[in-house]
């Protein structure tokens, strides 16, 4: 299937726009907002639904505060975000308003999505906004975020939104033309662009380079992570230069622009959430037999395969399953709290009730509540 055929099947799009597209050395680039609004509106006129994941609140706030570069502390960035969020959404509101469209601001944090119920609430809100013809403008809530709950950048957030709304395509607008075979070096010829990526291999990762943007938090590696997560949702990703005229429409038209990451096999939304959004609360060290049972036979995790329990977690929490060498192989929702798993580890299933005085079932993690991270064999 070529690009044009792939894009004809796209009905729901997530457009992630980076700070480098919206902010220049002289501050906010109003024309960038105008062009983005025009292109998104054109997609909607063509029957497509669009969610914008926008960086820029910290950069807008820093600009309004007169900072020439970002202050390093979390409180400084939170303060800049508090100032900038108002200006950012106002820019979108004015540009889309001129085209007769409404926008909605949606601010998210990781801890707001790691609980399944809140994740589904966010999904219902976004889908209702799309049904109403409103353009959701999503951003990480930097005003209250800390290092522990931050997505790390809006690249990873955009991949989460792809899963949330069931999008077919993720467009990442950045300050480069796409992924090159090697990191571009100033004063040297630009390395060839990689036009299509079927799978993110070690070679593709080695080709990735960091972003030089003074306001951007995410480098090329985070964009690869986002593309990989989007692929697990069955969505394609195009990484391209946000400053190229008409770039969003050109992507949808199937032009050979940027780097196209092909979609993979769609993972069930719940398992995608478990793999990429839910935060793990502890670790279960499992023996080699349990590793094989999970990764090659599609089995549940039984207490007999647990070697060690690390951390404190409750029933229903997400935990990582690691082999005895420390490599994570799976993660899942545990049917027992940490202290109970520690008591039944190494025991057969028929001994659970005798050891604990009760039973929540034979499995520590049922295969329906488990997703592989690094399948073996």
Textual characterization of the structure:
The chain is an alpha/beta fold and 377 residues long. It has two domains: 3-272, Carbamate kinase, CATH 3.40.1160.10; 279-372, PUA domain (Archaeosine Trna-guanine Transglycosylase, Chain: A, domain 4). It is 37% helix and 19% strand. It has 14 helices and 15 strands. The strands form three sheets. The protein has an eight-stranded mixed β-sheet, sandwiched between helices. It has a five-stranded mixed β-sheet with strand order 12-11-13-14-15, sandwiched between helices. Strands 2-3 form a two-stranded antiparallel ribbon. α3 runs parallel beside α10 (247-253) and α7 packs parallel to α9. The longest helix is centred in the first third of the chain and has 24 residues, at 74-97.
For the largest beta-sheet, the strand count, sense and barrel status come to: 8 strands, mixed
Q: What fold name stands as the CATH topology of the largest domain?
A: Carbamate kinase
**Distance, first to last CA:** 30 Å
Can you tell me the CATH superfamily of the largest domain? Acetylglutamate kinase-like
- Give the number of helices: 14
Indicate the percent of residues in helices: 25-40%
Rg is 22 Å
Beta-strand percent range:
15-25%
Give me the CATH architecture of the largest domain, please: 3-Layer(aba) Sandwich
Apparent shape: globular
Describe, in short, the structure shown.
The chain contains 14 helices and 15 strands. The chain is α/β, with parallel strands linked by helices.
């Amino acid at each position: 299937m070529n690009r044009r055929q792939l894009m004809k099947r796209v009905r729901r799009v997530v457009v992630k726009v980076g700070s480098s597209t919206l902010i220049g050395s002289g501050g906010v680039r109003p024309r960038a907002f105008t062009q983005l609004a025009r292109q998104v509106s054109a997609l909607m006129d063509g029957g497509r639904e669009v969610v914008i994941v926008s960086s820029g609140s910290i950069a807008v706030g820093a600009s309004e505060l007169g900072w020439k570069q970002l202050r390093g502390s979390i409180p400084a960035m939170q303060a800049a975000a508090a100032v900038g969020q108002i200006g950012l959404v106002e820019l979108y509101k004015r540009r889309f308003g001129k085209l007769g469209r409404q926008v909605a601001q949606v601010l998210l944090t990781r801890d707001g999505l790691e609980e399944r119920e809140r994740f589904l609430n966010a999904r219902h809100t976004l889908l209702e906004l799309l049904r109403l013809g409103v353009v959701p403008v999503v951003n990480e809530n930097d005003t209250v975020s800390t290092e522990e709950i931050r997505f790390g950048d809006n690249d990873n957030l955009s991949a989460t939104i792809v899963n949330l709304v069931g999008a077919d395509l993720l467009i990442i607008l950045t300050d480069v033309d796409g992924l090159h075979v090697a990191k571009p070096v100033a004063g040297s010829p630009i390395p060839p662009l990689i036009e299509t990526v079927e799978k993110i291999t070690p070679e593709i990762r080695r080709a990735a380079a960091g972003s030089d943007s003074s306001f951007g938090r995410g480098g090329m590696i985070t964009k690869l992570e986002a593309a990989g997560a989007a692929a697990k949702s069955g969505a394609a990703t195009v990484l391209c230069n946000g400053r190229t005229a008409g770039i969003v429409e050109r992507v949808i038209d199937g032009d050979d622009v940027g780097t196209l990451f092909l979609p993979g096999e769609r993972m069930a939304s719940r398992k995608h959430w478990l793999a990429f959004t839910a935060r793990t609360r502890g670790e279960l060290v499992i023996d080699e037999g349990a590793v094989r049972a999970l990764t090659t036979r599609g089995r549940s995790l039984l207490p007999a395969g647990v070697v060690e329990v690390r951390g404190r977690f409750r029933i229903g929490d997400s935990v990582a399953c690691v082999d005895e060498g420390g490599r994570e192989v799976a993660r899942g929702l545990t049917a027992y709290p940490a202290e109970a798993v520690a008591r039944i580890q190494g025991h057969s299933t028929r001994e659970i009730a005798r050891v604990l005085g009760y039973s929540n079932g034979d499995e520590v993690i049922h295969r329906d509540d488990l997703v592989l991270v690094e399948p073996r064999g």
